[in-house]
Specification:
- The chain is mainly α.
- The protein has six helices and no strands.
- Helix 1 crosses helix 2.
- The protein starts with a helix and ends with a helix.
Length: 187
């Protein structure tokens, strides 16, 4: 849970540095709202309604045929994947807000790797991932619409997609950190 905090701190720093603290704070709040909506919708509403067992859940007859990685089974229910919802929501909000293609590409690869690890660990079916992507996209659209309303009220006019401009060393450091964390289990 706390592994990704440095990435989020650097991302917030880049946003605040590029937009100034007032507009940047509004964007950071929009990102946080996206993740909260995606996570609560997935874990708090959809999972209890669907009650779909994870592949690795002990109550699932399929679990006895799976290789469990380091004893990790996750919770009881897994539909939709909140990892997929949260990472997709984050990337989608950034895509709606910014035009910085290298950052969006890096974050998209990060999100796809996150989703793959959920299936590799056996805690989600591919359809859980697809449902999580849908939840994340929905959360990003809702929070971006709310962000646009707040922007209009605070600053007037229609907001446009800005160019996020992290300095090259910050961007390289973010990319290196993501790669390090993704390959940490292999070390």
């Amino acid at each position: 849970r706390f592994t990704w905090i440095p990435l989020y701190v650097v991302m917030a720093y880049c946003i605040l540095r590029s937009e100034g603290w007032r507009k940047g704070l509004l964007t950071v709040i929009g990102i946080a709202l996206t993740i909260v909506i995606a996570d609560q919708l997935g874990a708090g509403i959809i999972r209890p309604l669907c009650e779909r067992l994870r592949p690795t859940a002990l109550a699932n007859p399929l679990s006895q045929h799976l290789h469990i990685v380091d004893g990790y089974r996750g919770g009881l229910y897994g539909m939709p994947s909140c990892h997929a919802a949260n990472t997709t929501g984050l990337v989608a909000f950034l895509a709606l807000r910014y035009r910085h293609t290298p950052l969006l590409l890096m974050m998209s690869v990060w999100a796809m790797i996150q989703m793959y690890t959920r299936m590799y660990l056996g805690v989600h079916y591919p359809t859980d991932i697809l449902a999580g992507i849908g939840v994340g996209l929905s959360a990003a659209l809702v929070s971006h619409c709310l962000w646009r309303v707040a922007y209009r009220r605070l600053y007037g006019g229609t907001p446009h997609r800005d160019r996020l401009s992290p300095s090259l060393p910050v961007f390289v450091a973010m990319a290196a950190y993501v790669v390090f964390l993704l390959f940490l289990p292999l070390l």
